[in-house]
Structures are given as C-alpha cells and as structure tokens.
C-alpha cells in the first residue's frame, strides 16, 4: 500500500501561535484527508482534500498532488486544538500516517 | 443511520476466546474499512470492502482475523483465539465509494470504535 509520512511527530505551541503540519505520500492518490483525534479517541474529519486548498475557520489545508504532499495550517492555536492530527491517503485502500501530536499550552 | 455505528463499545475477554465486533455503516455507503489502533499508536489498516467486489484483506495480521459484510451493509470483524497483543481499539469507517472522482466523494467517516481488552 501507499506510504504516508507526517512531520513533525510532536509539536508544542503556546496559545495563539501558528503552525504547519506536513504529510508526504509515496504515490499518486485519489483521496487525501486530515483528521483530528481528540483526547477521547474520536476521529474528527477536518478536510477532504485530494487537491487544491480549503479553509475552515482557523484551519486550512493545501494538497499538491503532483508533488505528493499536503499541508495543514493552524492559525491562532487554542488549547482545544490539542490532540493528534492524522493524514490519510488513498490509492486503493486508505492508509494513515503516524500522526503529529500537538500540545497547545495556555 | 446518521453515522457509523459500532458495537460493543467495550469488550473484555479472556485469552483464547473468540470475539465478534460489529459495524453498521452510513446508509448508502458502498465502501467499508476496518482499522486497529493500539494505545498511543497510529491506525493500522486491516481490511476494506467495496460493493460486491472481493475484499482487500492485505492488512489482516493473521489467519485468526476475518471479516464479513452481509448484504453490502453491516460488517462483522471476528478474532479467533484472542491473544493479549490483540488488545486495541478497532475502528470502522465508511465512504460513499472507495474510488472517488470529481462526482463521487471518497470521504471516510469513522465510528467511535470498539475497545477490546484481552486478559
């Protein structure tokens, strides 16, 4: 299956700071999603973004499919943004990266 | 249903017993996926079903694991002769299609998972 790599593995921010999370994938994809896993383990859909750029409030994402990467931007971070962010990419089955664990301190 | 439903939410079993985990996908979704997440780890792909096609079983870790999807809807993941290393959260997801296009979304939606503890 497709290989998905995320960076950085861990990120600690002060509340109000901005951040960029990166997702690299090993092959052409027809599906790319970003998820946030909250402290209770629930996976929250952030973006369905096989290509292009989308924005939702303080979050935005860009996928450059030809260069095999996607970026998730978090602006003006809040403590509630803490958790693990997963990128998942699909060619046939859907494969997940190892995640970026984000901690936002007050 | 409105979302992906999984049961049981928690299961504690003894080593060597068989367990069945159930997933009811979003109505109309043709693709269904099973993943496993061990504590503090990422999501490990197990198996996926797309319509009436043969399932992709490439992620199943051993022949103790099997899954069925009856009538193109509800799926059951069965683990035989459970081992302690099988302890994990088992997550199910569904999408409208597995091969998305501009017209058909492949967005995955997850259930809340079944937490399995093998003593």
Model description:
The complex is a heterodimer of chains A (106) and B (119). In chain A, 37% of the residues are buried. Helix content of chain A is 0%, strand content 59%. Chain A is an all-beta fold and 106 residues long. In chain A, a hairpin with a 2-residue loop joins β6 and β7. In chain A, the strands form two sheets. In chain A, strands 2, 4, 5, 9, 10 and 11 form a six-stranded mixed beta sheet that branches. Chain A has strands at residues 4-7, 10-14, 19-25, 31-37, 43-48, 52-56, 59-64, 69-74, 83-90, 94-96, 100-105. With 119 residues, chain B is mainly β. Chain B contains no helices and ten strands. Chain B has strands spanning 5-7, 10-13, 19-24, 31-37, 44-50, 65-69, 75-79, 88-95, 109-110, 114-118. Chain B is elongated. The N and C termini of chain B lie far apart (33 Å). The mean pLDDT of chain B is 92. The A-B interface holds A 1, 30-31, 33, 35, 41-43, 45, 48, 50, 86, 88, 90, 92-99 and B 33, 35, 37, 41-43, 45, 48, 56, 58-59, 89, 91, 93, 98-101, 105-110, 112-113.
Please name the defining characteristics of this protein.
heterodimer; A: 106 residues; mainly beta; six-stranded mixed β-sheet; five-stranded antiparallel β-sheet; 11 strands; 59% strand; B: 119 residues; four-stranded antiparallel β-sheet; 44% strand; elongated
N to C succession of SSEs of chain A: EEEEEEEEEEE
- Rg value of chain A: 13 Å
**Global geometry of chain B:** elongated
Computed structural class of chain A: mainly beta
As a whole number of angstroms, the C-alpha radius of gyration of chain B is 14 Å
Number of beta-strand segments of chain A: 11
N-to-C order of helices and strands of chain B: EEEEEEEEEE
| Uncertain stretches of chain B | none
**How far apart, in Å, are the first and last alpha carbons of chain A?**
40 Å
Oligomer: heterodimer
Ends distance of chain B: 33 Å
User: Largest contact between protein chains?
Assistant: A-B, 22 and 26 residues
Q: Structural class of the helix and strand makeup of chain B?
A: mainly beta
């Amino acid at each position: 299956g497709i290989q998905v790599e995320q960076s950085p593995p861990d990120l600690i921010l002060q509340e109000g700071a901005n951040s960029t999370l990166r997702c690299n994938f090993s092959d052409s994809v027809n599906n790319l999603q970003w998820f946030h896993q909250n402290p209770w383990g629930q996976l929250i859909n952030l973006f369905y973004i096989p290509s292009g750029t989308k924005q939702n409030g303080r979050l935005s994402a860009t996928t450059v499919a030809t260069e095999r990467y996607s970026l998730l931007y978090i602006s003006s971070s809040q403590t509630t943004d803490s958790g693990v962010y997963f990128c998942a990419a699909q060619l046939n089955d859907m494969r997940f990266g190892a995640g970026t664990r984000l901690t936002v301190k007050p | 249903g409105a979302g992906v439903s999984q049961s049981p939410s928690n299961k504690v079993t003894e080593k060597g017993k068989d367990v069945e985990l159930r997933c009811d996908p979003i109505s109309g979704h043709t693709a269904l996926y099973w993943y496993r997440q061990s504590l503090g780890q990422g999501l490990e792909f197990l198996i996926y079903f797309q319509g009436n096609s043969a399932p992709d079983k490439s992620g199943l870790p051993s022949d103790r694991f099997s899954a069925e999807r009856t009538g193109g809807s509800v799926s059951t993941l069965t683990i035989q002769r459970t081992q302690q290393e099988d302890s994990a959260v088992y997550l199910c997801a569904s999408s409208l299609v597995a091969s998305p296009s501009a017209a058909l979304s492949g967005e995955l939606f997850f259930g809340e998972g079944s937490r399995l503890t093998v003593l």
